[in-house]
Write a structure and sequence with these properties.
Blueprint (H helix, E strand, L loop, with lengths): L1 E3 L2 E11 L4 H10 L10 E5 L3 E5 L3 E7 L12 E8 L6 H22 L18
Length: about 130
């Protein structure tokens, strides 16, 4: 959690998981209320294999990742979530900010997890919504 002046502003998580397909992952986020409803969010790509979704208060990234040297025979992915604990403000700006933080966290987590065949992810610039 990131605090500013003693108040929580962002909740950041990155974990290696087995969420199934991108569709399963996104459905799970929507059902749990992690990303809002489908009509409230926008999707974006992250390189060739990554996928992201963002609402006016949160963003999440799905990125294939098999840690180097792993003996696991199942496909894993890196799941990143960013939630803004403060609500309000311009929805479009909030959505873009959350997506950019999620993209940066995904890039850092991918590096730290030593994902095999990791694609170099864009580090900056505007999010390209799909």
């Amino acid at each position: 959690m990131i605090h500013v002046n003693g108040r929580g502003r962002l909740l950041l998580t990155a974990e290696l998981a087995d969420s199934g397909s991108v569709t399963d992952w996104k459905t799970n986020l929507e059902e749990n209320g992690d990303i809002g409803s489908e009509r409230d969010n926008k999707s974006f790509t992250l390189g060739k294999t990554g996928f992201g979704v963002a609402s006016s208060f949160s963003a999440a990234v799905y990125l294939p990742c098999k840690p180097a040297g792993s003996k696991l025979n199942i496909d894993k992915e890196l799941n990143v979530e960013v939630s803004m604990l403060r609500r309000g403000g311009d929805a479009g700006t909030n959505r873009s900010d959350a997506a950019q933080v999620a993209r940066s966290l995904a890039s850092h987590a991918q590096y730290e997890m030593h994902c095999e065949n990791a694609e170099r992810l864009p580090r900056g610039g505007p999010i390209k919504w799909t």
